[in-house]
Amino acid sequence: MISAQRFELLNRLWSRLDYLRGYLEESAIRDYFLGIICYGYLSRNIEDRVSHLLRHDKRSFEEAWQDEEMHDGLREELISALGYVIEPQFLFSTMVSQIKKSLFNVECFQSGIDCFNRSIMGADSERSLQHLFIDMDMSSSLLERLLKSESNFIPDIMVTIHEILFSDDSISPVHFGEAYEFLISRFAANAGKKAGEFYTPPEVSALIAKIVTTGKNELRNVYDPTCGSASLLLSIAKEVKVGHFYGQEKMSTIYNLARMNMLLHGVTFDRFDIRNDDTLEQPRHMDIRFEAVVANPPYSAKWSAGPHFLDDKRFGSFGVLAPQSKADLAFVQHMIYQLDYEGTLAAVLPHGVLFRGGSEGKIRCFLVENQNYVDAIIGLPPNLMYGTTIPVCILVMKKSRGTNEKILIVDASHDYESGRPQHQLRDLDVNKIADTYINKKQIEHYSYLATLNELRDNDYNLNISRYIDKDIEEEMIDIKTVELQLGEIDRKTAEIDAEIKSKLKELGIVYQNR
């Protein structure tokens, strides 16, 4: 957890961005700001590594880099261990020192990025790190008005970031990931409808992580086909040890945020494989099966649904495709295909996938009757997710259910803490849902184990309200109390009538009862 002091410092850093909002769009501010933090983190890693390599040598990084005999060896060691090089003159700490001496300009930062890009060319890290900083071009015209208006603003932000995050060598590496997550969440809160494109609320991520790690101490690999900023993927590593992270993200700017998030959480370039493409149209990990598959895909997104997909291994066995206007179950079909036999799948989806008819009804029937993959359906509260107020559910699926023909249905829609702009799951809510799922508990008005016969009787309609009655407490009516209350009302009415009659008499008006 972020300490109160560091939370205050991060809030102070966040408040400094208000000035930028008069010059740049929120997404551009996000890309520059988080990019600067990532560069600072990678730069610090270089300094730490070089300090270790030169621990028996009295030379500085700059001196060793200028030495022809040491230069190549240093570069080789850095590329092997970290996957990149940031040269001494472009270190974040060096640039901050230049700022304090009034010797810095933003072109120097751009030169550092260019140096980083050259260093990864041809290296094993190239695929993981290429174009990492493409969205924060320091020579971009986006910055012109800002630089003309207040040329010291970006340097001031760099100094503040350095003081808060990188000046103290005792800061645990864990804090960098926490700080990055905190800032992504703040950007998400400001992003309105677009927030759902890149961020899943941490409480929902924590719940999904508990579900997919049930009974596991470690996972060989995890996968998110619509990974956004990769926060959902990284939440799994808070529960168990994860070997490799895989993901795909359609939007290039968010794809870069995901890779930065991985790096700031200490995940090295050789432990993650995040791709930038449309998962349904151009899947990039088809030959891999994953122990955990998680996703918060875009709700009711459009997709091509072309007839050629019926020859696609992901969809062919179903005989039908999700409608063009609603790709929700197409994502589910893709995820199932990628799921390992002993793995668990958990996806956040709109409730419509539980009851809509047509091709979606046929897909749902196949999932339940033919494959027997649906393990649980968990209804969540409304206004919980970024970018939408609709209630959503978590669909949990497993291929290894065997002869188990019961599906756990949970209605957790009433348990939350009200908030603005989003409601929030509390720790007790997350733990209750997780415990109910793990132990397959039946709790009146909360959870129910539905049988296959019940699902058939309901024509495979999985709408939660069909299986769980709402907890509506009937108010007991005390007849004697009600009689007394009515008598009191009659008495007061009589008093009012008498007072009105008296006033009217004074005015010479005859009062008549009706």
Concise description?
The chain is of the alpha/beta class and 514 residues long. The chain has helices at residues 4-15, 26-53, 61-66, 68-81, 92-100, 106-120, 126-129, 144-149, 153-166, 173-190, 202-212, 231-236, 252-264, 328-338, 358-371, 427-438, 452-457, 479-506; strands spanning 218-224, 241-249, 272-276, 290-295, 339-350, 374-379, 392-398, 406-411, 447-451. Helix 2 packs parallel to helix 13, helix 10 (173-190) packs antiparallel against helix 13 and helix 11 (202-212) packs parallel to helix 16.
Features:
alpha/beta, 9-stranded mixed β-sheet, globular
Distance between the termini: 72 Å
**What is the spatial order of strands in the main beta sheet?**
3-2-1-4-5-7-6-8-9
Name the beta content range: 5-15%
How would you sum up the major sheet? 9 strands, mixed
CA radius of gyration: 30 Å
Structural class by SSE content: alpha/beta
What global shape is seen? globular
On the 0 to 100 scale, the average pLDDT is 90
How many DSSP-defined strands?
9
Q: Helices and strands, in N-to-C order?
A: HHHHHHHHHHHEHEHEEHEHEEEHEHH
Number of helices: 18
* Low-confidence segments: none
| Helix fraction by DSSP (H/I, runs of at least 4) | 40-55%
